[in-house]
Design a protein that fits this description.
The chain is of the alpha/beta class. It has two domains: 2-122, Response regulator (Rossmann fold, 3-Layer(aba) Sandwich); 129-234, Arc Repressor Mutant, subunit A (Orthogonal Bundle), CATH 1.10.10. 38% of the residues lie in helices and 23% in strands. The strands form three sheets. It has a five-stranded parallel sheet with strand order 2-1-3-4-5, sandwiched between helices. It has a four-stranded antiparallel sheet with strand order 6-7-8-9, covered by helices on one side. Strand 11 (220-225) and strand 12 form a beta hairpin. Helix 6 (166-178) crosses helix 8. The longest helix is centred in the middle third of the chain and has 15 residues, at 108-122. The chain is globular, with a radius of gyration of 19 Å.
Length: 239
């Protein structure tokens, strides 16, 4: 998933970006609302983390303009960060279109949990566990595996772990969120990398190929759609 961080404090931004990147997100950072609007007009993101106390245009005005625009990212989830603990500031941010807020200082695990909740809500998902057939991906616990049929009085079958690299995880998460609809190659490319790390479309095919080999033993196929992207499909007899 690709996130945009709008924060003018370099040290704070560096810490947040490192934490989000370590959690598997592709994170791009800008230091002003004006630059954020330029970026959002050209590129798409899955979520934005916006500080209220920005120089020039503040984060509240940025949120208002974003929600009133016709940009592709206009409806994406927004979490605002604020050092202001006044009720009026929080209420104003939510009224202007923010989906959630956090007051500085905050703990990274709570930020990650709030981001996961916002992303699930935006994709109409109610659980931290994404599934397709026997495949289950726990976005909170960072576990993925294949659920086996229950037997001998078990309430549920055993989950066989599947080892994935960070980018294989990102590809699978994106495909599961959009399943059974196909995911475009361009969107997968954006989900895999931000400005700091460039990968080619051919590299996407490499990660897809690796992931395909790990899913096929469990009856889940990763089908290529010529000229568009990829889609998860169940092999006959797989449930």
């Amino acid at each position: 998933m690709r996130l945009l961080l709008v924060e003018d404090d370099v040290m704070v931004a560096s810490g947040i970006k490192l934490g989000l990147s370590d959690a598997g997100y592709a994170v791009d950072w800008v230091g002003s609302a004006e630059r954020a609007l330029e970026v959002l007009a050209e590129e798409s993101f899955d979520l934005a983390v916006i500080d209220i106390g920005l120089p020039g245009m503040d984060g509240l005005e940025l949120t208002r303009r974003l929600r009133g625009s016709d940009m592709e990212s206009a409806a994406m989830p927004v979490l605002i960060l604020t050092a202001r603990d006044a009720l009026q500031d929080r209420v104003q941010g939510l009224d202007l279109g923010a989906d959630d807020y956090m007051v500085k200082p905050f703990e990274l695990p709570e930020l990650l949990a709030r981001l996961r909740a916002l992303l699930r809500r935006s994709q109409a998902a109610t659980s931290a566990v994404l599934s397709f057939g026997p495949i289950e991906l726990d976005t909170a616990g960072r576990r993925v595996g294949a659920r086996q049929p229950a037997h001998d009085g078990e309430s549920e079958g055993r989950l066989l772990p599947i080892e994935l690299g960070p980018r294989e995880w990102t590809v699978l998460e994106y495909l599961l969120i959009h399943a059974p609809k196909p995911a475009s190659k361009d969107k997968l490319l954006q989900a895999l990398t931000g400005w700091d790390r460039e990968i080619t479309p051919n590299a996407v095919e490499v990660y897809v190929s690796r992931l395909r080999g790990k899913l096929e033993p469990y009856g889940v196929a990763l089908r290529s759609i010529r000229g568009f992207g990829y889609r998860l499909e169940l092999a006959p007899g797989t449930s």
